[in-house]
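I am hoping you can look over what I have pasted underneath with an eye to the fold:
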Amino acid sequence: MDIIGFYIYGFVSLFITVDPIGLIPIVHSIIYPYPKEQRIKIIRKAMISSTLILLLFALFGNYIFNYFGITIDAFRVAGGILLFKIGWDMLHAEVPKTKHKPDERLDIGDIESIAYVPLSIPLITGPGAITTTMILVSKAQSVLDKGIVILSILSTMLVSAIILSLSDYIIRRINIYGINAFVRIMGLLLAAISVQIIFTGIFGLCNI
């Protein structure tokens, strides 16, 4: 895979798992009581926090693997199954259960609290986004490839921040039915990507 192809693969994979379009109704319901300036501030803090978390896993993910004795092929199989479950939920226009629990929306305090929990974790930076980041790092064969992974993370977070900042406008223009249709399409793509990841991991474990 060439550099441009790897970047597109990384960006699309991360964008689908972060799923900013699908998050619009949830994020909007959490932050709508606040004035517009505060809503933008909340989203900015949440996106910065999410970016730092994914960069942390991108830079130090291999050390985590080595410490726990996890092989990349085993992680591909487990991570692929998780991503398939998220894709399956998206096909049914459901919020992935791995990313959000109802009580995490009720336990909100000040702006800082909302930005970090539940927006950054687990909504934006859920297990799916972390898993995708780790799998992308495993595909990086050189320092340049790792730089592409980091660029993919930054691009995804920037685009997601713009989309979530425009949630009011998007909801008025597209409505919930249009959002659900988009989420289903992204879910199908994620399911296909996850199946490929699972089989790559199985073949690696079996030395095929």
About this structure: The longest helix spans residues 167-205. Residues 97-108 have pLDDT under 50 and may be disordered. The chain has nine helices and no strands. The two ends are 20 Å apart (CA to CA).
